[in-house]
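ugh ok fine here u go
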Amino acid sequence: MPTIQKYRVVPSLPPELHELRDLTYNLYWTWDHDTQSLFHRIDPKLSESVRQNPVLLLGSIEQKRLEALAADEGFLAHLSRVADNLKKYLARRTWFKKNHGEDKPYQIAYFSMEYGLAKGLPIYSGGLGVLAADHLKSASDLGLPLVGVGLLYQQGYFNQYLAKDGWQQETYPKNDFYNMPLQLERAEDGSPLRIDLDFAQRNVTAQIWRVQVGGVPLYLLDTNLPENSDEDKVITNQLYGGDQEMRIKQEILLGIGGIRSLRLLGHRPEVCHMNEGHSAFMALERIRILMDEKGLSFNEALEATRGGNIFTSHTPVPAGIDKFDTHLVDRYLGPMYEKLKINQKHFHHLGGVDLNGSDGLFNMAIFAINMAGSCNGVSRLHGRVARKMWNYLWPDLPEHEVPIGHVTNGVHIRTWLSEDMAELYERYLGPAWYEDPVDQKLWRKIQPIPDEELWRAHTRSRSHLVTFARTRLQRQMRNSGASAAEIQQAAEVLNPEALTIGFARRFAQYKRAYLLFSDLNRLNRILNNKERPVQIILAGKAHPRDNIGKGIIRDIINIIRREEFRHNIVFIEDYDMEVAANLVHGVDIWLNTPRRPREASGTSGMKAAANGALNLSILDGWWEQAYRVNNGWCIGRGEEYADLEEQDRVESEMLYHLLEHDVIPLFFQNGGSGLPREWIHMMKNSIQHICPYFNTNRMVRTYFQNYYLPAVERWTRLTSEEMRLAKTLARWRDKVDRNWARVHILEVKSDIEGEVKVGDRLRISVLINIDGLKTEDVRVEVYYGQLDDRETVSYGRALAMTHEGEVSEKVHQYQTEVPCEDTGLHGFSIRIMPHHPELTHPHETGLVTWYTN
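structure:
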């Protein structure tokens, strides 16, 4: 074979168009309609065929067309305006600057396995990636000192098409990185910057690509390099592809490789945010660096780094968590044990291998929890589910005290808003709607918008959706070899005036896409009422190895092909960000039917709501927080069933009943004015209530104020003065671990004499033995509250007791008074916990000693 010399061909832009290059390589265009309009203007037909990728668009334009644009005064004026807007955006005084100063003395690194930034950058599979991308976009809007870290996949996630029998098929087209909006990070001599990792006694090299997301850089690692073996080139081949061995290699690259890449690029993040547990191995690299640079022990370095690590879980069931065989863990991470000066057993313990029910597997979520100072779920309900799911890690704590909080997800509204709705908001709310979208007073201005204008903007979006669906269906049919007559029929499906229901998500069984199809005769009557036409548009992929999900798609496709449904139900293949955007822009109802409490949050309904759609959903995930009687509909009242078939039957009946008696009548109730004014009123209520809270600007602010800033402060304290506090805290933990077994409660006295009255105060005193510890090492509490039917305190309150004196060297007396505020049967117990002012949470150690008689 001849030796191939590589060179890159780039567009030859006339000087007048040089600003186009900067615009294409900053993903600010993904949320700016004016920039998108500029790209479309370059070549309207071609811009539709390049997967919304402006870099590929410029590379595909004929030079003659570029020269013509350089002489087009109208285009140049448009280009100048858009370029100036980007410069102003990057130079503006942001929320962070206004509230936290002009300097950025620290940095936050955000790790995620996937990012759904744009259709033309297909390195995402679904909601997790889209959320991560929206997180970066809002971090840019707010001006946070944040960088993203991920992997750059050669094939990304799969493209979907359906066989003639409706069975999902997958293809894996290769990404051309040199025609995508990303650039290689290079050294001063122009050579690509690269990192090396030890993978099972062999070296693996990765290079670093950068995607610029407004003011936030996202660094993506790529192992498809000539110097790597064929086995290692494919580490970054597919997102969620391959076996468990491939998965652990990807997660080592993301975590350990991510930290090494940041340091090579000059970044030293104080805070590292793990978006799911995939990147948790980054904690090992942070520990190793501190051990090498500061001469710390493993435990000292763990204390220093733990407070700067944040773990966000999106998984409401244990089955959705990555777990690895310990032989695989030892094979790939064994060399780290020696560097970290810990043994195999110690490392396995950090991943929960020795816990009951672990099946001897290394659990990445448990490892992330052990490595993080703060953990959270992604909705209020998911926080409760996560505390219940992980309660066994804190077996001596009541469930509600498990140290896992929640930050409810949001969406980057500008990215997901239709152009028509964006113009309406601009006209009536002013630019503040995107500059400060959390301002509730601002969103009250939705109410005075004339009904006619809001309805007109929404119906235009519905018409665009119908046109888009018809075009995609025709393309699907051409690709499947359909006849000309069948393709022509596809151009006539759907009705721009019909009530349009959207359902689009991953086709996992628990999401229950089949619920709407459980009574086909009833569905037929609903959809084919000529006076009140209704239609359904669906989209979504099943995981390539999920045959149950594929079966659900196949069954729905075969229903759609029936004569009575083929005009008013459409399934759009290859669900991606373009399909999602068209759907949330144009539907009237966003349907969500998960099996509660399996939906951690969900965000698609938030996107639809911002565009004026109303949600019809199970009270799960985010909708459990957002639902009000005047902003949408709930299916059920949050019940959870032991009999899943009974649950499906009951909730499908509720769904049909809501459609027949509430949703459809309200949509077609126009009072002779031609406008469904009650429906429009509900649209306004939905927008006013949902938009100011369920957006990533509010979400990222919450992360910053409740998690990032405390983590920065903690990191600073722990690592200052030559790591003095980290060393002190490690010694304290060691002392507590060695002596805790001897801590116990000797005696409890109270002045209970039969009944007590509301307003009384119950005096309690205790004697405790804290052999080996000091009083400042412990916190003694009364845990009290109303008793449930099992005579246990549920959702009790804790009240610290006051140290009254030393009885002997080991024994101390504590006392307090408990207020009697409510009637009923109450109870109390006494507990002792380790206490140190630098613990991130009072229950961080998991050690609790309760009084037992």
